[in-house]
Amino acid sequence: MLGLRHIKAPPTLWLLHYRSGRLVRQGAGISFFYFAPSAVLAAVPVNVQEADFVFSALSSDFQEISVQGSVHFRIDRPEECAQHLDFALDERGRSNPETLEQLRNRLAGAVQVVAAEALQRLPLLQALQQAQPLAAAIQQQLQADGEVQKLGLEILTVQLVSLRPTPDMGRALEASAREAQLQAADEAIHQRRLATVASERAIRESELDTEAAVQEKERQLQQQRQQMAAEEQESTNRLRAQQLQADRQLEAERQELVQLQTANSRTRAEAEAYRLEALLRPLAGLDSRLVQALVAGNMSSEQLIAQAFGGLAEQAQQIGSLNISPELLASLTQAPKRK
Predict the structure, then answer these.
(1) Domain at 46-165: CATH code
(2) What torsion do the CA atoms of 253, 258, 259, 264 make, to the nearest 10 degrees?
């Protein structure tokens, strides 16, 4: 039939069939026949698209930052997007190649606005160090952007490939970073030296503490030895004092015993003297020769001879010479035999 045509779309292409200004069918990967004179077709790609961007922005300290990156997106609501952009197919079934480029440019512009606002709140050095957090913040703000919502877009990822300052500022930052690294290295060396000194000091203090503990232990042992020696000396002195006291008491008892024995002996001697005096008192008025004669009655011959010689000795000055016979001398020198 004249004007009857057939179209078939891949799964990544969303077809919209309009007739008399009304949407009659839509979908991804569909195929159908349509009457060309009265039909309008629009093909919206629903696969993942990429939009690159390069722009410059200012940081909070008014330093220029060159931003380069890309945003990945897809058209989540094709009908809404087709109402704002020209995705219509011509008579040959071809779409306008500039439509997607316009979409990418509009999205890159939205990224630039959001990124510029985010960078204006950060100083240069902090902004250069926060590429990933900044990309996440840009993605979150893009998803809530009114323009993106109106176009029916879904923001998948935002990647910041490069955040760079101007060449002069880059060299200054490199010099500053190099100086900071050198200072950090010097500080690390200094800290290691301090740690070594602290470790040596700790070891020395531990050794001193150990020596002090050993000296304290030796002092305690010395005090214990001195205390034990003092206690032993005190015990020895106590025993010696007790022994001395016992010796004194024993000596006193001995002296008392000797005095008692002496007194007893004196008493016995006085009693014996008194007895002898009482016995001899009747003989006090007798002649000595009579007493000797009475005593001689009980004497042996040797005692009598000895008494006779004693009398001769008393009269020695009156005796001229004395002759003793050998028999008498022999009888005097021979010891008497006791029965």
Answers:
(1) 3.30.479.30
(2) 130
